[in-house]
Model the fold of this input.
Amino acid sequence: MSHPPPPHPPHRRPDAPRDLVGIGIGPFNLSLAALAHPVTGLDTVFYDQRPAFDWHPGLLIDGATVQVPFLADLVTLVDPASPWTYLNHLRARDRLFPFYFAERFHIRRTEYDAYCRWVSEQLPGLHFSHQVDAVRWNPERNLFEVDFTQLDAGGEAEALGRTHTRNVVLGIGTEPHVPEPLRPLVEAPGVPVIHASDYLAHRDALLTAGHVTVIGAGQSGAEVFLDLLRARPAGREQLHWLGRTEAFAPMEYSKLGLEHFTPDYTRYFHALAEPVRDRLVPAQWQLHKGIDAGTLAAIHDELYHRTLDGGWPDAVLTPGVHVRTAGRIATSKVELHLEHLQQSTRSRLTTDAVVLATGYRERPLDHVLAGLDPYLRRDDHQRPRVDEQFRLVLDPSVSATGCHVHVQNAESHTHGVGTPDLGLAAWRSATILNSVTGQDTYPLPARTAFTAFGLRQQPHIPSARRPAAVLTPLAEGH
Done:
């Protein structure tokens, strides 16, 4: 059985600056750490305030799968020979032959979580229970200062620390989003109103509740609704599923549609004007916020099975609905004030529990980057500008030193719908490492899609394979 290589022995002075400090250890910075591990001479360290790695623990629902193929692990699409591939994880666990015969291209979420934990437990340079408090620029040393607090087992401050580094990579991820009308319900005690990210922790209480409403027409909402439906008795399901979108729509999963999650499209999107990018992101919701067709089929199959005795299940599925306001009735129920967007009608729904599958938002960078605010360059909406190599655009007095702050999963406004996609994790990590090292540490493909997304910027094609005809953009005014 093969094992990952041992960590590089330390060869640094205690006061020597790091080459790279990663903040946050989710899948994206874990990918970066895995790809950085074999790079000789590269001094990296990663901090996370959690005591250990976990990946959406509240949504590791039995049978739920990752929506990208297993090849979209931490490293394979850049370095398939890496010791940190998913296949090597299976080999280390003596599961390679069972996986081969299972013929699964999409693995379960629990499997992906176990794989990432396996990497995080063996990869050197990862420091959990370390909360990063501030990042500052030190103009005297031409380095970034990163202040952190080491936490004890109870999450209390144990020690303070500071490290200096040439590069910072922010991978602080996303946080659950609760729409404004529902925030008072979540914050008040009594009737269970929870975000889907905490679903499994409250599942038993939800199963014993009388009527349960699921709000949100994305993948999480579908999985929660299906899990509740399967666990509640036929004819007494007492479930209502609401969605703001006009349909419980399938995710775009055609092969050419998936090319929106390639480096080619990311580069194309980044080169667009800011107003165009801002219009595109919400319009492309079905590329990444729709529902897996298999999950939709499973919901229909379960509902259909419950009609065998001639009745209909006590389950209502209503898309195109907006929750205007919400309030509690006494201490035992919730009243939702609904508006149907197409009918322009309003009604009230009384329920005993609510699951908010209302998605996630990128965590604001302002707190951790407050010390860098004078150096940050922002766009017309005061969002940090991010260049093509995932670097925050900083004042030239900083960037001229060769020191940079990179971001992971915080650049949808500049890099598009592929920002949170696991399939681009390894490529983005390699792009960042190439920037940090100043060389092609990981050679990256010049072309990744059959689609040419624009007329003005053609992907690089080696001359030996150049097509016979190439579109030539017209000059301005023609």
Notes: The first helix runs from residue 27 to 36. Residues 458-478 have pLDDT under 50 and may be disordered.
